[in-house]
């Protein structure tokens, strides 16, 4: 073989490794070539028959693909289509007398695009509401002279500002967690102490409803975690356990070592979470009861932050809950961190 010649065997083998589908059809619409991925995409059509040499319409029962292939126009072509729930970008090229169909799986990309759109519209919505309220407050204040009333309105404005402040804070935490550069800074931490200090920070909240905070973790229970992040995780769980509790209820934090894992439980005696909502509460902005959540404050991002931090520690978070009885959130992390 001289230097200018291409080894077609290499090219063909390479095409079978490719995670994109390639089909070559001759001028009579007979299939001349199909790589492994194309066969996989169209496996429901092919079902054990050897497609090579057969007419396209005989093998592939997809009318739309057939219409692309039989298109008389010589222009190259690009279109999105769905095959068995996956989304593909299909391109057709005219090369010599042949037509080459190329399939690129863009399902994940489309899901990502949609998630990004939803996220942006959620954030805008969450910011618009407090801004609209504050605009109303400012307009009222312009006309108002009574000092008591002015104080009352300023107080309302302050609440909305706090709400936006928490939202931006949580968004920044999420953005940081999602950026790949962010590494964990693992050190040994005394879990009981962390919990006590969070209880202290949240005392004002628990006092409002006379909720008892119980730390069941023995002193000296050491865990390997990124302390700053684990603080955020536990604070979110404990804050929820207080916010969604009943008056005179209790919040208990406990921990155990089991089968190479550390399990940390935050248990409350609150309103609980309906079964159908349980898988959704870790999604950004999901709230079981939007109007109630607005009253108790919160951004709807807390549990997705919790999930992120647990996963960053190679762990996970689970929930068990019964409406009107209470909930237990359990964080599991491996006892000794990998690597
Ligand atoms: N301990 C709990 N008891 C009952 N419901 C809870 C509890 N924790 C979370 N939830 C529900 O899950 C939703 C999402 O929680 P989270 O992400 O922390 O957002 P939020 O800012 O609303 O607290 C809450 O709005 C609430 O409906
Ligand atoms: Mg919360």
UniProtKB/TrEMBL annotation:
The catalysed reaction is: ATP + protein L-histidine = ADP + protein N-phospho-L-histidine
**Listed EC numbers:** 2.7.13.3
Outline the extent of the Histidine kinase domain.
122-337
User: A biological process (GO) annotation for this entry?
Assistant: cellular response to phosphate starvation
Cross-referenced PROSITE patterns: HIS_KIN
Q: Name one Pfam family in it.
A: HATPase_c
Name under which the protein is recorded: histidine kinase
